[in-house]
Each structure stands twice: as C-alpha cells, then as structure tokens.
Amino acid sequence: MVNTSSGRAEDARKRAELAASSGRYESERAQILIDAFIVKAMELGIDPEPLRARTFAGTEVKTDKVGWYIRKNRSIAVGTDGGYYQLTVPGGSGFMERLRGVKLVATPPPLVVGRGGRDGETGDLSEFLDRLLDRKR
After folding, report:
1. Its pTM surpasses 0.85
2. Eight-state DSSP code of residue 120
3. Whole-angstrom Cα distance, residue 11 to residue 128?
4. CA–CA separation, 53 vs 63, rounded Å?
5. Rounded CA gap, 59 and 37, in Å?
6. pLDDT tens digits, one per residue of 37-63
7. How confident is the model at residue 19 (pLDDT cuts 50, 70, 90)?
8. Which residues, including other chains, have CB under 8 Å from residue 61's CB and lie 6 or more apart?
9. What confidence tier does 18 reach under pLDDT thresholds 50, 70, 90?
10. What is the distance between the alpha carbons of residues 118 and 121, in angstroms, rounded to a whole number?
11. Other CB atoms closer than 10 Å to residue 65's CB: what's the count?
12. Model confidence over 92-116: pLDDT tens digits?
C-alpha cells in the first residue's frame, strides 16, 4: 500500500514555497518602483504630508509617518521611508487613539494596488505612482 498522504503534503509544501517566493519577488519589484517614485517626487518638489489613518470604527487618527497617499480615498500611502502603508487600522474611537495616534507598520507592497477589492480603484502600482508625479509635471 502506497502512502499518498505524505506525497500530498509534500506537494502542498512545494506549492506554498512557490507562492511565498512569487510574493517576495513581486514585493521586491514593487519596492523598486516605490524607491524610484520617492526620488522623483523629491526632485519635483512634491512634498510629503503627515499621514492619517482611519480606524475600523471610522475615526480618523494621526500616525507616526509622513508620505504620499496613492489612493483617492486615502486608504493606502507610501512613506518617505519607502514603506507601503494600509491606512485602515484596528481600534475604536477612543480618546487616547486620537490623542496619541497610531504606529503604522509597513506591509509588503504589491504590483497591483487594490487587487481583489470591490471599490473600483485598482490598478498597477506604477500607474498610481505616475499619477502623483503627473500632478506636478
């Protein structure tokens, strides 16, 4: 009798490794675009601004980052530090959150912004970044 469960487990492990490798490769390529955008934005004098986030409860709070919003609804931004930030954060509408703000943690950047989203504002990261640069040109 052949033990197929170990073969299936090995196949699943290989698929997971390939998916993780593909995700890292995509993020590395996206990071190159972000880094180039930051250099160009600074050259063009496109000033970054303090980033604000919105809690799940809908309260707007300050953050510890400065950068550029890349989506019109201000839900995603890139920081001057090269980080890619999703600006919807956990938390309620507490006074302390509004007072102290929140610390943002960068997420691996995708090449396609809003992939799988239903709000209609999806597209290539390069297009979102170019749109910001085109405002100053």
Report:
1. no
2. S
3. 37
4. 7
5. 30
6. 999 999 999 999 999 999 888 889 999
7. low
8. 52, 53, 54, 55, 89, 91, 97, 98, 101, 102
9. low
10. 8
11. 24
12. 656 666 667 889 999 999 999 987 5
Distance CA 123, CA 102 (A): 28
Residues found in the chain? 137
Amino acid at 3: N
Q: Provide the token pair at 7.
A: 């073969």
Q: In angstroms, rounded to a whole number, what is the distance separating the alpha carbons of residues 29 and 111?
A: 7
Rounded Cα distance between 17 and 43, Å, is: 39
Distance CA 91, CA 108 (A): 22
* Domain segments of the chain as ranges: 4-134
Written as one letter, the residue type at 8 is R
How far apart, in whole angstroms, are the C-alpha atoms of residue 88 and residue 53? 6
- SS3 string, 84-125, reads EEECEECCCCCHHHHHHCECCCCECCCCEECCCCCCCCCEEH
**What pLDDT, on a 0 to 100 scale, did the predictor assign at position 99?**
66
